[in-house]
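Ticket 4471: requesting a sanity check on a complex prediction with 3-methyl-2-oxobutanoic acid. Repro inputs:
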Amino acid sequence: MTKQIQFFDTTLRDGEQTIGVNFSVEQKVQIAQALEKWGVDVIEAGFPVASPEDFEAVQAVSRAVKHTQVTGLARARKGDIDACVKATKDAVNKQVHVFIATSPIHRESKLHMTKEQVIQSIHDSVSYAHQFFDIIEFSPEDATRTEPDFLVESIETAIHAGATVINIADTVGYTNPVEFGELFKNLRENVKEFDDITFSVHCHDDLGMAVANSLASIENGATRIEGTINGIGERAGNAALEEVAAALYVRKDYYQATDNINLKETKHVSDIISDFANMPVPHNKAVVGANAFAHESGIHQDGMLKNPQTYEILTPESVGAKKTTLPLGKLSGSHAVMAKLNKIGFNVDRAAMKDIFPVFKRMADTKSIISEDDLRVIMNQVKEAVH
Ligand code: KIV
Ligand code: ZN
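Returned structure tokens:
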């Protein structure tokens, strides 16, 4: 059966926790509008109690966004929830996101709370939020390092107090995809309300597994994925939502999932975040990197010229990126050089390439990329040598 997957974007909250990133309120509104166009289901616009600027941003996004759900983040405290109530007052659709850490290391070293106190806090905060919000997402922070039984108890407490979404946070990116499967198996077996609740995951990328963990969670019962555009976020960042969306699209056969993402807007939304965050996207970044649709080696270029599906599982057009490129360099083959020469107006065939290709190779040994102008120089040299 096809599953509907929701995308929860926290670029404006967890994404802004990236060192050196500080979006203005105007930029946050523009990002939220781009995210709405991209098709996310929920936008986490900030942490309203954290600062007057954060409050203002959540309020401005709530007013600017037309139909996407807007949420603010709240610790399990009344004051935080009150700030979310006020900041999201004008949102057409809203939820609140309440969290408290549940793992032993966080309970003992950070919160200085017993298990009983954490349970009481979950009950009190979620019940309080229930007076104001129909949709309440509860996150056990560091859920993946929490004792399995206590995780179930925390989740059951939140559900009984009114939570409608449970978000499993892999706060420090510790867990691997197989363990995510086991964690969800435990939840499916022990959380009585599992089928009536939306299960979400929030994966960090400390070991480079955030996207893989998000996808493994979808296979095991999660129907909401939290992350950020370009994977920005605290430390090594969050799950890159554009990668999750592309994986669900390319591997529809495997995940059997649909979503509301308008994939053609992907490059645009990635560019905006990169620009406002002042964080260039690495060239080799999946889906949105400058090299994601560029092929240099001779064998690959030859394959691409014969059938693009030999080396591309996703077309650049499908994510709104520029066309595939076959940059010419020292590893390029004669087929790609001939194709490029024909494209720029030289009518050359395979026989002519016997003279041209060695000249190309000599130049390619001295430069990383051979431009169209370089090709013209090469053709002049060949012409002179022949006459
Ligand atoms: O990483 C985390 O645990 C969080 C929570 C607030 C969900 O960002
Ligand atoms: Zn996080």
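Notes from triage: Residues 3-277 form a domain with the TIM Barrel fold (CATH 3.20.20.70). Leaving this open until the requester confirms.
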